[in-house]
Amino acid sequence: MTAELRHIEAFLTVARCGNFTRAAAELHVSQPALTVQIRQLESALGVRLFDRNNRTVGLTPPGRELVAPCERILLDVRSIVEHAHDFAAHRRGVVSVACLPSIAAELLPRAIAGLTTRHEGIAVRVRDVVAARVLELVKSGEVDFGLGSCGRVDRELSEQQLLADRLAAFVPNDHPLADKRSVTLREVATFPLILTGRDSSVRELVERALERERLSIHVAQEATYMTTALGMAAAGLGVAILPHAATTSAPSGIRRVSIRTPALTRRIGIITKSGRSLQPAAQRLVEALQAAVRK
Hints:
By secondary structure, the protein is of the alpha/beta class. Helix content is 44%, strand content 26%.
């Protein structure tokens, strides 16, 4: 027989009380049941733990040696149980998320701030990477979930829509398009363009739209991050096509002009590995993201 926690707790309680009757009352079991537990533990360990007579119960030398190790076992188990309860109650945990730079710059920080205000024990680790890398990190299990766009059907991944993000043109205040409330993609395509890298979701969306519209373009510059593209646009190197959310990172002197035809909408989703459920702390972050979007 392998000693169970209830046997260890019974042993420690009898050792502390020095009496089977008081120990049984404290453990809310009958005295015969307690006696059986102690005998089972002694049988499992192969040693006698108590010297008994009609009036007193005393620890044997092996029993005295086992008190401290058994106390440590109970403390460790109780700590594990407490930690597990905190984890299950979403009060503690580490969440790792892979995220597009545009989302990592504005929406995600707001969601993390809201989450950690309510759950100080939850820590969030952010990997701000391009779209293709988001998918890779989710597939490999290196992150709990990703914030991006699958683009195409992938059986290894599941996607829950979080928001729809429109693309716009970003130009300096003195640019010919700056005074327009909205423009067509055809109008934008007549100017040198600043686009994100070919492994980004924005670039893929723009190129699909250009192909449908049969438009040829001149890519003046490429950038991985929105702030870089915005800086290039501010320097007059071309028209940057970026998500509306880039407005929060735009330097002074840059204007956002909506692209009305065709409407370029990027769908951002919560991407998880198929068949894998989120750990409780990660689910809390998802809820915080959804709340941030609603606001």
